[in-house]
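User: I'm new to structure prediction. If I give you an amino acid sequence, what do you actually give back? Let's try with this one:
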Amino acid sequence: MTVRTAELLMAIMMGIFSIYLMYKSAELPIGWVEDEGPGGGAWPFWLSGIMLISCFGIIYNWYRKKGRIASSKKIYIQSHVLTEVGAVAASLIITVALFSFIGIYGALPLFLLFYLRVLGKHPWFFSITFAIVTPIIIFYFFEITLKIILPKGITEPLFIPLYKMFL
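Assistant: Good question. You get back a string of structure tokens that encode the predicted 3D arrangement of the chain. For your 167 residues, that looks like this:
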């Protein structure tokens, strides 16, 4: 796929997404509401409209081959890069899927270990340290400081002593 083709596909997808956002935003008032100001759907509707107009501009430039990107015949993405992006995307999907089973505090260290050690080729000491410290910081920030409970899955009983200590 060339850069030119990728630009066209992205403009079409973003145009469709803009139309969807405009449709959903129109479920709320999109104009001026007397004595209140802009309706609840005004900002998303009109920003999506601007995005749609931009997509038409991109398609117009693509059709006329106007601009460096619109006329580029370079390859959009190398196959090895696509493989790496695919590995990251797949590992993120697996991580999110694991949230309901082993919780964020079980899935996040697994993802970090895979990402840092396997994909990033960082040393074991750094990868393990980062994979342990990051969930601890996230726990204290969200659960203790902000009082936002994150999913823990089957690991929830392990957190009861921490709740008793801090809450």
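You can read the tokens as a compact description of the fold. Here is one thing that stands out. The two ends are 55 Å apart (CA to CA).
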